[in-house]
Amino acid sequence: MTKKNVMITLDEEIHRRAKELQLNISGECEKVLRDKVFNKIHQEEETKKCHKCGKSSEEAGELIWLCPDECWCCKDCINREVQKIIIGVVPT
């Protein structure tokens, strides 16, 4: 496997403590990312349903991935949430 050199920014305290514990920062980051990436792909394949109403992509027509929530949402539920926001900010 070919490795790519990348740069990350860490909180100073986390960096200091990781060094004190003699952790391989690159290795630890790679393990966490590998787990997150492969679990997310597996999870998406198994549970691609709207987190609000539970509709599958076949039922909803299209699902949209929401960030930073990290969940799927159908257009109907997004539109309902937008309407709640609009109604909430309209002066009475």
What share of residues are in beta strands? 5-15%
Average pLDDT figure: 83
Q: Can you write the helix and strand succession as a string?
A: HHHEEH
Going across the biggest sheet, name each strand in turn.
1-2
Low-confidence segments, given as residue ranges, are none
What's the shape?
Answer: elongated
Gyration radius (Cα, Å) is 20 Å
Percent helix, as a range, is 40-55%
Q: Count the E strands.
A: 2
Roughly how many Å apart are the termini?
Answer: 61 Å
Number of domains: 2
Give the helix/strand layout.
Elements: H1 12-20, H2 25-46, H3 57-60, E1 63-66, E2 71-74, H4 75-89
Antiparallel strand pairs: 1-2
Index terms:
92 residues; mainly alpha; two-stranded antiparallel sheet; 4 helices; 2 strands; 9% strand; elongated
Molecular structure report:
It is a single chain. The chain has four helices and two strands. It has helices spanning 12-20, 25-46, 57-60, 75-89, and strands at residues 63-66, 71-74. The model has no long low-confidence stretch (mean pLDDT 83). It is elongated and about 55 Å long. The protein is mainly alpha-helical and 92 residues long. The protein folds into two domains: 1-46, no CATH class; 49-92, no CATH class. A hairpin with a 4-residue loop joins strand 1 (63-66) and strand 2.
Summarize this structure briefly.
The chain has 92 residues and is mainly alpha-helical. The protein has helices spanning 12-20, 25-46, 57-60, 75-89, and strands spanning 63-66, 71-74. It folds into two domains: 1-46, no CATH class; 49-92, no CATH class.
